[in-house]
């Protein structure tokens, strides 16, 4: 995973609520193991509409998406994150996110920023008032969004998740350093209920005998 | 010594799986059961790239469901190379790691969220994860179960643990008695209509109240399944006699002395009196009618007796624009009676409603009737055991005589990843869980409802109040 660098560009407002992962990418596009090349399919169903925000020249290369509540709701498909990143989006700012999508973002270096809805609307207005030239900057190291007019809006993010993103590490890399504690837990649980540990290893299904 | 503070069901399971707490509020949790399916190829690939092998293959169980066809059990007959590749990859990945897989011809194959409870793999008090959002289903067993993404699947494969920030708790109490023709599906659609598609975001839901206690295990599985459609991280129902009776004797359930010891633990799991939830919501069970959805979010649900809303009457401009979009996509007329909406296809199945009780309810409506002219209706059992039992009960004959197609087990038309989709513009009465745009194929129009309601739509050719058919007998 890439280290997360500050993002700067025109923020595209797409404020509809409940943008689901099927809308972000159709599951039909997610066959095989590839995480790349999915950008062309991002928002495929909406791209057909010439008025769709990312079809407008001013927003065609937006690295920041301003979204509505519950962005990324629905399926656990990580392809939704891969598709957005493939389409050049590095940060989504929304009042709330689907929980699984939110977690998937951190595993891949797409930054999900939670801001109050009023703040996002103000940001969208500033961008629209600038005729789509006013640039927004998202700085994870400083945990601020800098609006086109230069206002600094702070945001919260779990400290270690922030660190991992800045260093370009996903959880798999982080956890392998905690082997000792995992082994401790296993030993404790095995002591507390040995029968559960015996039964888990025994394959009792009819098909396996 | 002071009394320990009362804890919720969720808190008890969370606490007993905590490996360590990180200073930033993230907790590393130990995973009891990891279920994988044929969409997991990217996770195995990531693991391979890092040179890591699955840590606890005996805690991992696999079954192909998303990409399998439901007209054949012959893998070679899967005409789409990419789909067959996903099924082949699952077989290769699990064989290499020594993971038990219920393959296409296995007696236990099925949709992963039907297979888990049915085989007894999903048990009270467990922490269960799977790379699929409908993993919330297993919470009906009194477990903490939730969906995760590909990288997290790789993380669990590699470490048998997962980082999580502790979610908030929400208790939804449904009291009262459900009316004739009202099922768990109607209850969950009514809940989502009440609290919204983001109503439970960041929360684990515990369903409680007399109407929930009165639900069968199958009903509770349906209820918890759609917790994610309300934004919930997970949904759970406290284990009770219904749970234990369902679990006893299943292939992977404990037996003998082990059963007694586990049962004693399970009986301590329900939320303590006085346990505090972050939020509480009440729903009047007596007032719930058979529900159908009309829009592209599960929150767009109404009683079948209702008329469609009129976007023009919506004061909020963004909400109005969203409604107009949904009406255009769904091809509906504002203000029309829901019962006037005609359907082209009917899909009975999925991890939401593909269990034996669902098929019985649909068969009861289909018995002695005929699928309406021009309607294509499918019954897709949720698993091979469900299919077998339905055949033993003669349900397949009822369906076939009524003109339904009787198929093999799989996800099928729920999500359109296996080639089983509706054509653009076709309207589907579906027992699945999502009415998102394009979910059942590009341009397909989905209305969610219970199996009995879907059967009623099949035989009448339009969205219909199943209670009227039940009255006919």
UniProtKB/TrEMBL annotation, chain A:
Cited Pfam families: Aconitase_C
Function: Catalyzes the isomerization between 2-isopropylmalate and 3-isopropylmalate, via the formation of 2-isopropylmaleate.
Domain Aconitase A/isopropylmalate dehydratase small subunit swivel: 1-117
Pathway: Amino-acid biosynthesis; L-leucine biosynthesis; L-leucine from 3-methyl-2-oxobutanoate: step 2/4
Record-given protein name: 3-isopropylmalate dehydratase
Catalytic activity: (2R,3S)-3-isopropylmalate = (2S)-2-isopropylmalate
Gene Ontology MF terms in the entry: 3-isopropylmalate dehydratase activity
Family the entry assigns: Belongs to the LeuD family. LeuD type 1 subfamily.
Highest taxon above the source species: Bacteria
Signal peptide: none
Enzyme Commission identifier(s): 4.2.1.33
UniProt entry tagged with the keyword Plastid: no
GO cellular component, one term: 3-isopropylmalate dehydratase complex
This protein's record includes keyword Transmembrane: no
UniProt entry keywords in alphabetical sequence: Amino-acid biosynthesis, Branched-chain amino acid biosynthesis, Leucine biosynthesis, Lyase
InterPro entries (UniProt xref): 3-IsopropMal_deHydase_ssu (IPR004431), Aconitase/3IPM_dehydase_swvl (IPR015928), AconitaseA/IPMdHydase_ssu_swvl (IPR000573), IPMI_Swivel (IPR033940), LeuD (IPR050075)
GO biological process: L-leucine biosynthetic process
Residue stretches in coiled coil: none
Record's subunit section: Heterodimer of LeuC and LeuD.
Automatic annotation (TrEMBL), chain B:
Entry keyword annotation includes Nucleus: no
Chain ranges passing through the membrane: none
A UniProt-annotated Pfam family: Aconitase
Keywords: 4Fe-4S, Amino-acid biosynthesis, Branched-chain amino acid biosynthesis, Iron, Iron-sulfur, Leucine biosynthesis, Lyase, Metal-binding
CC cofactor note: Binds 1 [4Fe-4S] cluster per subunit.
Biological-process GO terms, alphabetical: L-leucine biosynthetic process
EC number per UniProt: 4.2.1.33
Domain Aconitase/3-isopropylmalate dehydratase large subunit alpha/beta/alpha: 11-461
Pathway this chain belongs to: Amino-acid biosynthesis; L-leucine biosynthesis; L-leucine from 3-methyl-2-oxobutanoate: step 2/4
Family according to the record: Belongs to the aconitase/IPM isomerase family. LeuC type 1 subfamily.
NCBIfam families in alphabetical order: leuC, PRK05478.1, PRK12466.1
Function statement: Catalyzes the isomerization between 2-isopropylmalate and 3-isopropylmalate, via the formation of 2-isopropylmaleate.
Subunit structure comment from the entry: Heterodimer of LeuC and LeuD.
Protein name from the UniProt record: 3-isopropylmalate dehydratase large subunit
Organism in which the protein naturally occurs: Plastoroseomonas arctica
């Amino acid at each position: 995973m890439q280290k997360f660098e500050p993002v700067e560009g025109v923020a595209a407002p797409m404020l509809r609520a409940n943008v689901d992962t099927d809308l972000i990418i159709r599951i039909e596009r997610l066959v095989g193991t590839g995480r790349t090349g999915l950008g062309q399919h991002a928002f495929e169903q909406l791209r057909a509409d010439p008025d769709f925000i990312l079809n407008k020249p001013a927003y065609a290369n937006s690295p920041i998406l301003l979204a509505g509540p519950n962005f990324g709701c629905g399926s656990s498909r990580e392809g939704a994150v891969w598709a957005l990143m493939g389409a050049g989006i590095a940060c989504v700012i929304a009042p709330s996110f689907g929980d699984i999508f939110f977690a998937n973002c951190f595993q891949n270096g797409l930054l999900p920023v939670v801001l109050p809805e009023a703040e996002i609307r103000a940001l969208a207005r500033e961008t629209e008032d600038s005729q789509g030239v006013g640039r927004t900057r998202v700085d994870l190291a400083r945990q601020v969004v800098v609006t086109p007019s230069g206002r600094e809006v702070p945001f919260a993010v779990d400290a270690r998740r922030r660190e991992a993103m800045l260093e370009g590490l996903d959880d798999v890399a982080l956890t392998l350093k905690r082997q000792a504690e995992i082994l401790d837990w296993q030993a404790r649980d095995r002591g507390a209920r040995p029968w559960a540990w015996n039964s888990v290893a025994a394959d009792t299904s009819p098909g396996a005998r | 010594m002071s009394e320990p503070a009362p804890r919720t069901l969720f808190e008890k399971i969370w606490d007993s799986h905590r490996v360590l707490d990180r200073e930033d509020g993230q907790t590393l949790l130990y995973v009891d059961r990891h279920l994988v399916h044929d969409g997991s190829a990217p996770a195995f690939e990531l693991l391979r790239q890092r040179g890591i092998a699955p840590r606890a293959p005996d805690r991992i169980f696999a079954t192909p469901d998303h990409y399998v066809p439901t007209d054949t059990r012959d893998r070679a007959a899967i005409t789409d190379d990419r789909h067959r590749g996903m099924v082949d990859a699952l077989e290769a990945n699990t064989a290499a790691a020594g993971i038990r897989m219920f393959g296409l011809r296995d007696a236990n194959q099925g949709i992963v969220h039907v297979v888990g409870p049915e085989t007894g793999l999903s048990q009270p008090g467990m922490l269960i994860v799977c790379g699929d959002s409908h993993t919330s289903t297993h919470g009906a067993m009194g477990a903490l179960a939730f969906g995760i993404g590909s990288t997290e699947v790789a993380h669990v494969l590699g470490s048998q643990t997962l980082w999580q920030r502790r979610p908030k708790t929400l208790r939804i109490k449904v009291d009262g008695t459900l009316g004739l023709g009202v099922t768990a599906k109607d209850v969950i659609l009514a809940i989502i209509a009440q609290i919204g598609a983001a109503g439970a975001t960041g929360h684990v839901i515990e369903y409680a109240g007399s109407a929930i206690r009165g639900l069968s295990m199958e009903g509770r599985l349906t209820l918890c399944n759609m917790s994610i459609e309300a934004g919930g991280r997970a949904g759970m129902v406290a284990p009770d006699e219904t749970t234990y009776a369902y679990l006893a004797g299943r292939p992977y359930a404990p037996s003998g002395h082990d059963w007694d010891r586990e049962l004693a633990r399970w009986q301590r799991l329900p939320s303590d009196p006085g346990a505090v939830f972050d939020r509480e919501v009440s729903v009047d069970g007596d007032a719930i009618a058979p529900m159908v959805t009309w829009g592209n979010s599960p929150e767009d649900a109404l009683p079948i007796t209702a008329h469609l809303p009129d976007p023009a009457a919506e004061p909020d401009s963004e909400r109005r624009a969203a409604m107009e979009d949904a009406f255009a996509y769904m091809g509906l007329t504002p203000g029309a009676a829901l019962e006037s909406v005609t359907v082209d296809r009917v899909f009975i199945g999925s991890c939401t409603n593909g269990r034996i009780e669902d098929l019985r309810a649909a068969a009861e409506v289909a018995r002695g009737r005929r699928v309406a002219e021009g309607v294509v209706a499918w019954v897709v059992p949720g698993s091979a055991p469900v299919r077998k039992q339905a055949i033993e009960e003669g349900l397949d004959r009822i369906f076939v005589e009524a003109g339904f197609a009787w198929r093999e087990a799989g996800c099928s038309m729920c999500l359109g990843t296996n080639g089983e989709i509706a054509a653009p513009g076709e309207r589907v009465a579906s027992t699945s869980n999502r009415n998102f745009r394009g979910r059942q194929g590009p341009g397909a129009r989905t209305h969610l409802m219970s199996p009995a309601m879907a059967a009623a739509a099949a035989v009448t050719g339009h969205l219909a109040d199943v209670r009227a058919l039940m009255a006919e007998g």
